[in-house]
Structure formats: structure tokens, C-alpha cells
């Protein structure tokens, strides 16, 4: 937008904006707008001083920041206690943030007025006047002193110097076009529409502000209409090219022209209601008051109508107007360059086209107009389902609605029968339960609820050291405003994710009480993504709420982390199950570890995976190198730690005998050290205890016997029981398998060989020998339980058989019979 | 009331038979659940308690039901669900999702099915149109888990996930679905109960370690060690008519006939044989179904002979039956292969070898058989291959000529001999050739 920064001196700065005749002078104590993330709401600041850096080439400015309403977190906005004014800003007194900006990022001066906290906001729509009432230090709002705010000298007329990429040139051409015919003027418009560079469109799309495009276009139209209308209405005696042009058409095609003239009327009326100073200024956002939206709307329609005339004249084809109008709307929405070539979507619009036609023929009847409006809305919504990424976001859809909505006179007409409710507004969800949950009734139930893995413990015992390490690592990065990576490994159930979450909770708390700067916390999980590249999408969505394709998201994130931006918060990113983000080129991992190394990224990446040597095993050198050597490994819990964990969870609920707890923790520690397992066993033990309290001698506590039973249930393999419970022939078959293995000296035999042994055993046991089919069925059943490992059954008698249990187990199980 | 009963007693026999068949068929085809799952009381209680806690207290749980095929896993689950849903509190809360590993072969299909069954379609419907399918996944998971009330397990309705053929889900890529389901069940989100049904005893070894850690390790094993007397009792109850049968007289007659049937020595023997072969109730139902289908108006009860016939039908060898339909030439080729197998100890053979063996037989002792042309023999050989009585050795490519392609015999000697005994009008010299030790 800013083309160049010209001459500089210590006391003032001259910037020139493309398309504007005069350069703007920036001096200290003046309020300025600074380019930010959101093009619609640039940052506001006051220049304190201007200076050049050491080399003398780079000009910088020291500024005092102001915060817009949209920059204050929604949760904090409640502290305000009233509705914020859209033009309200707050004097920023929070934590020190980068107050040096490059002068390239200065957009233009702006007017800032201080108001007493009691005075109401002036009722003005001026977009270039900001109001300061309060200061904001990221915790609370305070009344601000007017001396801090008011600048020494206000710029003469900041509003006249609005830089506007799209309209800058056009406004000029419009001004110079006064002598041209209206049709020529319109064709200029049309050319502008058609030749708008895709670059501009892209830029606008990127920021999901497509409605701005529409509103800008509408405003351009409005501008032309201003002239047109003035000529048509205010100076009737003067013979005008438009009327001349209109007359012959009037003769030839009567109806289109009547449409045109009728449509022109409302815009004139609407225009008269507006203060003249605003006529030339483009609208910046969709936040208009009602007059404005009426204006926009009527002008939109007028635009359609005038185009209709234009086209009729140009092509003299009676059916064209509708097509053209439809194309035009689509063009506005689609930013497509070619007006007539996209016929394939035509049928989609046929019904609404009719409505549109009806709308253009009706007069100022309110109800019918609404029907027409709805049809337009429908088109917008329909387009919204189209292919362009921007239209998809629900936010822009909503804005579309607000753009086209008129204040309605009778609210009972609100829902028109013809408009189907768009499904995107109804968010289906799992219904809430109709009956409340029952509260735990006795001590065992309460213990069980406390022991569930999901119940969040008050503290995390036994991970103090790890907690401290991670905490200090992240804290130092946040305070320094730098970035870094950390790799955390450990077997499942050792509290890796829980510890990181606990750290984040504490840091968040610290940030709330203002000990450390605020930060963003984002969490992604490799297991919860279908594709590693979805990581970008999720990160972007968590950061900004935007939705994008993976490639686009990667580009946006890259831009965000690689470029300096004032007042950037530190982002803490937790990547769980890192190994699943592995791709062949490892570009996802590379990016994740590369961003923290960028100077301006302020990104802290914590990664979690199970294996300790993951970086060495699966990462290529340049990825492993960027991950760095900040490693931490979580050891499996020892039995004492497990015991402590259970005790702290139970929190003085006396449900377990001491010995029982020790048994569980020793057993689990010996096997895996998985805290989840430990909790699950305890939970199961409470159940067993609950069901076995029929005998009154029991203490009601979970004792050794219950725990033993639970341990047996969970750890003993069912193979031996399964063999004991198998049918006679199945047991015989297993014996035959072992006999055949012994004969062969191998651990593998074909079914045919085993079957011979089986027949012999049958005779030995005095049973009738079974047929081959039956034998195969027996074999398959054993294979389905995985007592045997089999080849695919299509091999029939030739399939090879192996035991999945040890021979000793089989013999033990069969002997015990 | 009593009047009607008197009238009902004398129903025409045909009507009674139709009713009997209907009642018993429903039992055998698993359309009707038994009142109580017999022999599975402990497991029934465990599962019912578990699901009741999920439904009423909003506790998340995961459990596996493991047992051999036909042991009554699904029956148990259905019984539990039936009884659970009779409680009003549970009925109002519980949402159910049933998945089957054989149908939902990958996670995407499974998610679609979950969405459909939870009636979350329209978000996803919108989603599917506009965006790539990958987003879809998170969409549902978000919907499913972090609903409007994230972290509040007391307000959202519990969801029961039944995963039939659970082991097949473990073969999905990364086990993403299982990870997410178990993760939800271990976190304070929407309460879920995950019930896996499988027949594999080693199912836990299939799970990846992080998935395994999130599973609660509850397993309900359906391994019942009942004896033959219980089996016989089951047969009796399965065949008996209920007390509320319309024609009381007929029901009494029928039940007493079943009683005598079960006491018959030969019947007991046949059932013992079945019991020895498998304790699977499905195969028993198959046997009883065959008996039932022989009941007609002219023969209004099951006779021991019917059961023996049915038993024979169930136990007969499939391959031997197939041999009965072969031509003499094909049978001779099979015999030649058998001799080759004996001579070369199971090494594979080709058509040429088999033909030579056959020609040797013809030269030596055949007086009823003639030599056939090579193409005719080839045709017969190919027919055998199509019937899968022989199959080519793995790895032998199609490059080799068909005459020399190596083959293996898929039959056991006993099957061949059995088939020869029953083969209609088998020439004696062929029989002798088959029985002789040497070719």
C-alpha cells in the first residue's frame, strides 16, 4: 500500500501514498495507524519520536500504543461493564512490548480524541476519529489523563488522505469523467470490475474480507450514481447524455428502461439523507448503521438495473438483462474476470433469477422487496458454498447477512416461506442428557470416581523435578521473548501430557496475576489427525480462528513466524504423539522445529513421544539438529510413586487397605510402571469389593483378596482357561499338534500330518475318528481363538499349523483336567 | 376365558405344526433372545453393572468381551442392553453406536457410520460438500467429544460404542479410531462406554502400546466349561414348547416326545459326538434346525431317526462328497496322484507324471478301462483343478507349460478311500488299484 518512504528528518517524516496527490507529514506527538495483522483494523499508536538506526538507512519510530476493542480479549472486555464503541481505543499501559516500529509500516495519521469517562460517544460515523476514554494494562481498565492522549497538533484533514488501493485511481477517473456520458462512465466501471488484478483480490481474500470488495464496488457504483442522480434529478433542464441514451432504448425495449428509471429513484433519496462530506469516501467495513445499509442495498440494486440498461443497449437482446444481472452478482462475488463465459453454473441460479426479476419490477412495496432481498441473500449463500476458500468461513457468511439486511418494519415477516434455513447455522450436537447424573452414594463409589483416570487431580505428585524443568524452560522463553524446542519421551502412562498441562495451567495462572507476559497455548495431537499436514491447519485455527487448506495454512504460519510484528505474544505449542507427524520428506517436523529458531517467531515447541531415541531413529539430520538437545525422559513410576499417586487421588477417602495398595503398586511397577493401569486395577478392585460384601464379616474396605482377583483378571492370560474349556476334539487336536511337533522336531506341521496323529489319538481314546472336514473345522476354531496360528484356510489340508501358546502351557492345561 | 381355552385346545394339527416351527425357528436363528443368558450369570452381572454406571453416573469405561465363536458374546451383550434399556433412567440417557469390523473396514467409513448413528449428519453434510474429507475427522471427534460442555461429564449424554469384531479395528491405520475412543474414555469429556466383541484371545497384543495404555484392560471371558449333561439339558429346553402355547394338549404331547427323544440311546450318542466336536451353540442349532424341518402334519414329532440323519448330514465330509460327482477318468487320475504321493512322499507332481502312472495301470491290469487321448486327460485334470481338489504349487509361474506345472493333491487318503467305497458302479479293478500298496 505504501509505496515509498521519502525524505526524513529527526522531527518529521513525509510519506507518500500511491494515488494521492499530496504526501503526508508525520511528526512526533501525532497519532498514526500502523500496519498490522488485520488490514481492516490497523494498530493505533502515537509517535513519540522518530530516529534513524545506526546505519542511517532504516527509519524507526518510538510509539505509544493504543489498543482497539478487537484486540482486547473477549473475556476481559466484560470488565468494561458496557458496550464498547466501535471507534473506541484504549491507552495501552500494559507490559512493555516492542515500541519501535519501522516507518514503512506506518499507514497514515489518524485523529484521536480524548473523552471524559462520563461523556457519551459522539454520534458520528467518521471512521478516522478514535476516542479514548480509558487505559488498558491487560488486566483492568483505568481512566486516562487527557494530556497523555491528545496530540499536539492534529493533521489538517486526515480523512482526505485516505489511501485506498482499489479506489484511489478510480475516484480520480470518476472525477474526471464528469463530462463523459454515463454509459461511458459505467463501462469504465465495468472495465474496472473486469480488470481488477487478481493480486488485489487475493489479498482481500486472504483476510476473509470479501464483503469489503462488495462494499467497495457498491460504493464506487454509489459514487457514479451520485453524479448520475444529481444530473438526473437536480438539474432536469440540462440536456444530459444519459437521458438521451435512455430515450431510444425506451422506445425499443420498454420494460428494461422503466426498470432502470425506477431503480434510480431510491438511491437519490438515500443519498439526500447523507451528509455531503461522506459521499466520496469509501466504506471500510460492513459496520454501517441502517441508513447506510439501505443505501448500499439500493445502490446495489441500482447497479444491477443500470447494468441491465447498459447491456440492453449494447447487445440489444431482450433476454440478456437477467443473465447479465446474474452474471454481475456472481462476478461481484466471485471476482471472476470473464463475465459471460461461465455458463456451467447457470442452472444453479435459475430460480433466484426469477425472483430477482420480480424484485426489479416491483415498486417500493416493502414486503416484496424483502422477498427480493431474501433471494439475494440466497444467492450469496449459494455462492458461499462454492469453491472459493474465503466464502466458506461462517463468519463471512454472517457478515453477508448483515450486509444485505434491511431494518424491517414488521418483524413477523421475518421468515419468508421461500427461504430455506441454511444448514450451516444449525449446529447439531449430541443432546444433553435429560436426567442428571447420580452422585456417588457410598465410599467405594466415591473412591471409584476419584480413581478414574479422567478425574483431574489437585496436584501431580512424583513429577516435581520434571515439572520444574519444563516450567523453568517455558517460563524463561516466555520472559525472554525467544523460542525453543523441547523433546519429552517416556512410556505410556507416565504422566507426560499431564505434566505439560499442569505446567501450562501454572504458567497461565502466573500470566493472569501478571508475573509473566501473556502467551498463547496450542495443543495438537498426532493421533487425532488423519494426515500430518493437518497439523498446520489445526495450529492456524487455534492461533487465529482461520480455516485454510494445509498448504495455505503452512504459508500463513510461515509468514507469521518469520516476519516481525509489533506486540507479538509468545506461542507455546504442545505436539503430542510426535512420531505420527513423520512424513517422507519430514517437512512438517522440519517446519515445527525451524520456526522457533527464527528471530521473530517467539514460539516454544514442546514435543512428546514414547521412544527416547526418536530423533536419532526417524529424523533426518537437519530436523534432528533443529530439535536440539533439550531432552527430557519420564521414567516409569516406581512402586512408591504409584502408591503415592493413588493416595493423593483418594485424598483421605479411606477405601483401601494399606497392604492392598502396596500390592497393586508393586505389581504394576514391576510390569510397566503405567499409572493408568494402576488406577484401573484399583477401580476394578472396588467393584469386586462392592459385589462381594454380602458376608457381614468384611470391613467394607478393599482388601488383598479383592485386589488379587482384579490383578488376576487383568494380567492372567486366558489361554489356559480357554484350553480347559475347549471341546474334547479340540483338546485332542492340540495334543496331536504337540505329538507331531515332537515327532518332526519342528515347531510347524501341515494339517495333514497333524490329522494323522489326531486319528491315532482318537482311536486311543476310544472315540469315533472324525472326518477331514470336521477336523478342519476344529482346527479353524482353534485358529480363530489364536490358540493356533494358521495359514489361510483356502490351503485346506496343506495349511501349516503352529502353536501360539507354549507346549508346556498346553500340557499343563490338559493334564489338570 | 376358560371357554376360549376349551375351544383352543382343539386346534387343527396343521396350525399347531406351523406354530411350533415358527417358535423354534426364531430360537434357532437367533431372532429371539433367551430370558436369561444361561451359564453366564457372573459375566452378565459384571457387564450390566458397568454399562449401568456409564448410563446413569456418566462414568467412562472400556471393556472387551472375549470368547470363542458361538459362545454367546453378542447374545450376552444384547441381553444386557435389553435389560438396561428397561430402566427408564438409562433409556433416556444412553446413545448407542454399533460398529462392525467387517463392515467398517477403515476409520473414515467408521466415522461416517458414527456420525450417522449419532444423527450428527448435517454438520458433516455441509462439511463434506465444501471441504476435503480430512477435516471431517476432527469435526466429528470435536463434536463427539468436546461438545458444548467440554470437561463436564455430568451434562452430556453417555454414548455406548459397540465394536463387533474388535480385532479388525486394530488393523486400521495407526489405530486412530481406537486411540481416540479410548482417549475419550480416559478423559473428562463426554462419557463413553466402549465395548469390544472379539473371539481372539490375544487381542490385547494387537494394540499399539499407547492405545493399550488407554484401554482399561477389563476383559470379560466367555469360557464356560459345561459338561455333557448341561448340553443335553440345553437341547431339551431348546426343543421344548413354552407353557403358554395355545394348544395345551399338543404342547404336552410334543414335550413328552422330546423327552423320550433325548433319552434315546442312539440320539444321546450322536449328541455326544457333536458335543465332543464342538461346544458351539450355533452348530447345535444347525443340527436341530435340520430335525425341525422334517416335522410335518403327517409326522408331528421329531423321531430319533431324524436326528441321526441330520447328524450324519452335519458330520459328513465335504470333499468326499465332491468325489462322488467325478467321472471315472477323473477318479483314476486322483488315484494315480495318491500313488505318486505315496511314492514321492508328498512331493508335488505334474500332469505328465500322473498320466504316466495312469498308463502304467492300464497296461498292467486294466480290463475295463481304455486309454484316453492326452487332450481329454488334460481336460479332466483342469476340471480337478477347478474343483480345487488339486492346486498349483505356490511360486510356480504361468510360464511353464500346463503339462509340467507342479501340483499338489488337496485330499487325504482316507477321503479318497471313503469316496471309492460309496462311488456308484465303480469298476473293481480301479478299486483294487486304489487299495494296492504299489502303483
TrEMBL record, chain A:
GO terms for molecular function: ATP binding; ATP hydrolysis activity; chromatin binding; DNA replication origin binding; metal ion binding. Residues 360-378 have a biased composition (Acidic residues). Signal peptide: none annotated. The keyword Methyltransferase does not apply. CDD domains: AAA (cd00009), Cdc6_C (cd08768). Residues 394-412 have a biased composition (Basic residues). One of its GO terms (biological process) is mitotic DNA replication checkpoint signaling. Residues 24-147 form the BAH domain. It comes from the Eukaryota. Gene3D superfamilies: 1.10.8.60, 2.30.30.490, P-loop containing nucleotide triphosphate hydrolases (3.40.50.300). Residues 338-435 are annotated as: Disordered. One of its GO terms (cellular component) is nuclear origin of replication recognition complex. It is found in: Nucleus. The keyword Metal-binding applies. Keywords: ATP-binding, DNA replication, DNA-binding, Magnesium, Metal-binding, Nucleotide-binding, Nucleus. Component of the origin recognition complex (ORC) that binds origins of replication. DNA-binding is ATP-dependent, however specific DNA sequences that define origins of replication have not been identified so far. ORC is required to assemble the pre-replication complex necessary to initiate DNA replication. Component of ORC, a complex composed of at least 6 subunits: ORC1, ORC2, ORC3, ORC4, ORC5 and ORC6. ORC is regulated in a cell-cycle dependent manner. It is sequentially assembled at the exit from anaphase of mitosis and disassembled as cells enter S phase. Interacts with CDC6 and KAT7/HBO1. Interacts with LRWD1 predominantly during the G1 phase and with less affinity during mitosis, when phosphorylated. ORC is composed of six subunits. Belongs to the ORC1 family. This is Origin recognition complex subunit 1. The lineage of its organism: Eukaryota, Metazoa, Chordata, Craniata, Vertebrata.
TrEMBL record, chain B:
GO terms for molecular function: ATP binding; DNA replication origin binding. Pfam families: AAA_16, ORC4_C. The keyword Hydrolase does not apply. It comes from the Eukaryota. GO terms for cellular component: cytoplasm; nuclear origin of replication recognition complex. Residues 59-225 form the AAA+ ATPase domain. SUPFAM superfamilies: P-loop containing nucleoside triphosphate hydrolases. InterPro entries: AAA+_ATPase (IPR003593), AAA_16 (IPR041664), ORC4 (IPR016527), ORC4_C (IPR032705), P-loop_NTPase (IPR027417). Keywords: ATP-binding, DNA replication, DNA-binding, Nucleotide-binding, Nucleus. One of its GO terms (biological process) is DNA replication initiation. It is found in: Nucleus. Gene3D superfamilies: P-loop containing nucleotide triphosphate hydrolases. Component of the origin recognition complex (ORC) that binds origins of replication. Belongs to the ORC4 family. Component of ORC, a complex composed of at least 6 subunits: ORC1, ORC2, ORC3, ORC4, ORC5 and ORC6. ORC is regulated in a cell-cycle dependent manner. It is sequentially assembled at the exit from anaphase of mitosis and disassembled as cells enter S phase. Interacts with DBF4. Interacts with POLQ. This is Origin recognition complex subunit 4. The gene is ORC4.
Amino acid at each position: 500500500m505504501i509505496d515509498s518512504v521519502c525524505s526524513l528528518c529527526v522531527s518529521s517524516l513525509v510519506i507518500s501514498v500511491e494515488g494521492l496527490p499530496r504526501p503526508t507529514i508525520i511528526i512526533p506527538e501525532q497519532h498514526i495507524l500502523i500496519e498490522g495483522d488485520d488490514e481492516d483494523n490497523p494498530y493505533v499508536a502515537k509517535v513519540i519520536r522518530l530516529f534513524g538506526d545506526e546505519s542511517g538507512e532504516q527509519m524507526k519510530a518510538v510509539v505509544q500504543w493504543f489498543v482497539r476493542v478487537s484486540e482486547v480479549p473477549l473475556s476481559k472486555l466484560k470488565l468494561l461493564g458496557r458496550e464498547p464503541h466501535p471507534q473506541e481505543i484504549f491507552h495501552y499501559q500494559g507490559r512493555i512490548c516492542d515500541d519501535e516500529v519501522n516507518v514503512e509500516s506506518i499507514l497514515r495519521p489518524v485523529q484521536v480524541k480524548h473523552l471524559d469517562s462520563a461523556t457519551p460517544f459522539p454520534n458520528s460515523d467518521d471512521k478516522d476519529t478514535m476516542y479514548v476514554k480509558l487505559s488498558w494494562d491487560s488486566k483492568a481498565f483505568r481512566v486516562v489523563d487527557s494530556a497523555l492522549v491528545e496530540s499536539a497538533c492534529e493533521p489538517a484533514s486526515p480523512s482526505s488522505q485516505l489511501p485506498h488501493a482499489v479506489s484511489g485511481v478510480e475516484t480520480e477517473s470518476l472525477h474526471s469523467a464528469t463530462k463523459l456520458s454515463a454509459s461511458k462512465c459505467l463501462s469504465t466501471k465495468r472495465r474496472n470490475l473486469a480488470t481488477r488484478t487478481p493480486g488485489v483480490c487475493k489479498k482481500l481474500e486472504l483476510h476473509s474480507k470479501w464483503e469489503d470488495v462488495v462494499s467497495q464496488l457498491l460504493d464506487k457504483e454509489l459514487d457514479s450514481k451520485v453524479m448520475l442522480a444529481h444530473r438526473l434529478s437536480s438539474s432536469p433542464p440540462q440536456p444530459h447524455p444519459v437521458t438521451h441514451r435512455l430515450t431510444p432504448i425506451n422506445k425499443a425495449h420498454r420494460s428494461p428502461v422503466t426498470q432502470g428509471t425506477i431503480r434510480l429513484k431510491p438511491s437519490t433519496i438515500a443519498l439526500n439523507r447523507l451528509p455531503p462530506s461522506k459521499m466520496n469516501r469509501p466504506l471500510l467495513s460492513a459496520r454501517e448503521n441502517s441508513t447506510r445499509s439501505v443505501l448500499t442495498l439500493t445502490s446495489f440494486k441500482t447497479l444491477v438495473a443500470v447494468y441491465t440498461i447498459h447491456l440492453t443497449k449494447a447487445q440489444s437482446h431482450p433476454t440478456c438483462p437477467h443473465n447479465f444481472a446474474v452474471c454481475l452478482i456472481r462476478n461481484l462475488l466471485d471476482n471472476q474476470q470473464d463475465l459471460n463465459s461461465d455458463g456451467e453454473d447457470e442452472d444453479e441460479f435459475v430460480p433466484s433469477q426469477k425472483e430477482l426479476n420480480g424484485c426489479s419490477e416491483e415498486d417500493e412495496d416493502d414486503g416484496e422487496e424483502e422477498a427480493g432481498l431474501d433471494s439475494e441473500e440466497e444467492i450469496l449463500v449459494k455462492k458461499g458454498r462454492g469453491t472459493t476458500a474465503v466464502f466458506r468461513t461462517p463468519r463471512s457468511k454472517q457478515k453477508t447477512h448483515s450486509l444485505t439486511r434491511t431494518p424491517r418494519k414488521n418483524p413477523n415477516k421475518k421468515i419468508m416461506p421461500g427461504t430455506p434455513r441454511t444448514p450451516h447455522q444449525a449446529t447439531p450436537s449430541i443432546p444433553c442428557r435429560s436426567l442428571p447424573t447420580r452422585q456417588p452414594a457410598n465410599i467405594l463409589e466415591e473412591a471409584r470416581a476419584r480413581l478414574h483416570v479422567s478425574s483431574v487431580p489437585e496436584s501431580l505428585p512424583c513429577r516435581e523435578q520434571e515439572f520444574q524443568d519444563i516450567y523453568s524452560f517455558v517460563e524463561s522463553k516466555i520472559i525472554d521473548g525467544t523460542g525453543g524446542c523441547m523433546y519429552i519421551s517416556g512410556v505410556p502412562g507416565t504422566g507426560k501430557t499431564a505434566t505439560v498441562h499442569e505446567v501450562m495451567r501454572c504458567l497461565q495462572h502466573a500470566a493472569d496475576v501478571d508475573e509473566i507476559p501473556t502467551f498463547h497455548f496450542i495443543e495438537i495431537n498426532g493421533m487425532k489427525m488423519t494426515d500430518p499436514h493437518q497439523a498446520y491447519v489445526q495450529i492456524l485455527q487455534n492461533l487465529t480462528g482461520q480455516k485454510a487448506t494445509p498448504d495455505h495454512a503452512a504459508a500463513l504460519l510461515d509468514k507469521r513466524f518469520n516476519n516481525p510484528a509489533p506486540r507479538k505474544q509468545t506461542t507455546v505449542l504442545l505436539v503430542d504423539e510426535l512420531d505420527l507427524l513423520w512424513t517422507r520428506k519430514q517437512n512438517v517436523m522440519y517446519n515445527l522445529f525451524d520456526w522457533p529458531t527464527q528471530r521473530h517467531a517467539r514460539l516454544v515447541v514442546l514435543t512428546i513421544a514414547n521412544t527416547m531415541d526418536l530423533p536419532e531413529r526417524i529424523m533426518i539430520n537437519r530436523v534432528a539438529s533443529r530439535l536440539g538437545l533439550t531432552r527430557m525422559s519420564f521414567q516409569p513410576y516406581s512402586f512408591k510413586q504409584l502408591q503415592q499417586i493413588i493416595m493423593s487421588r483418594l485424598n483421605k477417602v479411606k477405601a483401601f487397605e494399606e497392604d492392598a495398595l502396596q500390592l497393586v503398586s508393586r505389581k504394576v511397577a514391576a510390569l510397566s510402571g503405567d499409572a493408568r493401569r494402576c488406577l484401573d486395577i484399583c477401580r476394578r478392585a472396588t467393584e469386586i469389593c462392592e459385589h462381594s460384601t454380602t458376608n457381614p464379616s468384611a470391613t467394607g474396605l478393599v482388601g488383598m483378596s479383592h485386589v488379587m482377583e482384579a490383578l488376576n483378571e487383568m494380567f492372567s492370560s486366558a489361554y489356559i482357561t480357554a484350553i480347559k474349556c475347549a471341546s474334547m476334539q479340540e483338546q485332542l487336536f492340540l495334543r496331536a499338534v504337540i505329538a507331531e511337533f515332537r515327532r518332526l522336531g519342528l515347531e510347524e506341521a501341515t494339517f495333514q500330518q497333524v490329522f494323522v496323529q489326531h486319528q491315532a489319538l482318537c482311536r486311543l481314546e476310544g472315540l469315533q475318528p472324525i472326518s477331514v472336514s470336521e477336523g478342519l473345522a476344529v482346527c479353524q476354531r482353534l485358529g480363530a481363538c489364536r490358540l493356533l496360528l494358521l495359514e489361510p484356510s483356502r490351503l485346506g489340508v496343506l495349511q501349516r499349523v503352529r502353536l501360539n501358546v507354549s507346549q508346556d502351557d498346553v500340557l499343563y492345561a490338559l493334564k489338570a483336567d | 376365558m376358560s371357554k376360549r381355552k376349551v375351544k383352543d385346545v382343539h386346534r387343527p394339527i396343521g396350525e399347531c405344526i406351523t406354530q411350533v416351527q415358527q417358535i423354534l425357528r426364531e430360537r434357532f436363528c437367533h431372532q429371539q433372545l433367551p430370558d436369561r443368558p444361561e451359564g453366564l450369570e457372573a459375566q452378565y452381572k459384571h457387564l450390566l453393572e458397568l454399562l449401568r454406571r456409564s448410563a446413569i453416573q456418566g462414568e467412562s469405561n472400556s471393556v472387551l468381551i472375549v470368547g470363542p465363536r458361538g459362545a454367546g458374546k453378542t447374545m450376552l451383550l444384547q441381553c444386557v442392553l435389553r435389560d438396561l434399556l428397561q430402566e427408564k433412567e438409562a433409556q433416556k440417557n444412553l446413545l448407542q453406536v454399533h460398529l462392525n469390523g467387517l463392515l467398517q473396514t477403515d476409520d473414515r467409513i467408521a466415522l461416517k457410520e458414527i456420525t450417522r448413528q449419532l444423527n450428527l449428519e448435517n454438520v458433516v453434510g455441509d462439511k463434506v460438500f465444501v471441504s476435503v474429507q480430512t477435516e471431517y475427522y476432527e469435526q466429528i471427534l470435536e463434536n463427539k467429544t468436546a461438545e458444548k460442555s467440554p470437561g463436564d461429564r455430568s451434562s452430556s449424554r453417555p454414548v455406548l460404542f459397540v465394536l463387533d469384531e474388535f480385532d479388525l479395528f486394530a488393523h486400521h491405520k495407526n489405530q486412530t479410531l481406537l486411540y481416540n475412543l479410548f482417549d475419550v474414555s480416559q478423559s473428562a469429556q463426554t462419557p463413553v462406554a466402549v465395548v469390544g466383541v472379539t473371539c481372539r484371545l490375544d487381542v490385547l497384543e494387537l494394540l499399539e502400546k499407547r492405545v493399550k495404555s488407554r484401554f482399561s484392560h477389563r476383559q470379560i471371558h466367555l469360557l464356560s466349561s459345561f459338561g455333557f449333561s448341561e448340553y443335553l439339558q440345553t437341547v431339551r429346553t431348546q426343543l421344548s414348547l413354552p407353557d403358554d402355547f395355545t394348544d395345551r394338549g399338543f404342547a404336552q404331547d410334543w414335550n413328552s416326545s422330546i423327552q423320550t427323544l433325548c433319552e434315546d440311546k442312539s440320539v444321546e450318542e450322536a449328541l455326544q459326538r457333536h458335543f465332543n466336536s464342538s461346544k458351539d451353540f450355533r452348530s447345535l442349532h444347525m443340527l436341530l434346525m435340520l430335525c425341525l424341518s422334517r416335522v410335518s402334519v403327517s409326522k408331528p414329532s421329531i423321531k430319533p431317526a431324524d436326528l441321526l440323519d441330520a447328524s450324519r448330514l452335519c458330520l459328513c465330509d465335504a470333499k468326499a462328497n465332491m468325489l462322488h460327482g467325478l467321472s471315472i477318468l477323473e477318479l483314476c487320475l486322483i488315484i494315480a496322484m495318491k500313488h505318486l504321493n505315496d511314492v514321492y512322499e508328498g512331493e508335488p507332481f505334474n500332469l505328465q507324471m500322473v498320466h504316466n502312472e495312469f498308463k502304467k495301470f492300464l497296461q498292467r491290469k486294466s480290463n475295463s478301462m481304455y486309454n484316453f487321448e492326452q487332450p481329454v486327460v488334460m481336460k479332466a485334470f483342469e476340471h480337478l483343478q477347478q474343483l480345487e481338489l488339486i492346486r498349483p504349487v505356490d511360486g510356480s509361474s504361468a510360464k511353464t507349460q500346463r503339462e509340467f506345472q507342479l501340483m499338489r493333491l488337496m485330499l487325504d487318503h482316507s477321503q479318497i478311500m471313503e469316496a471309492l467305497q460309496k462311488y456308484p458302479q465303480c469298476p473293481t479293478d480301479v478299486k483294487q488299484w486304489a487299495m494296492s500298496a504299489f502303483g
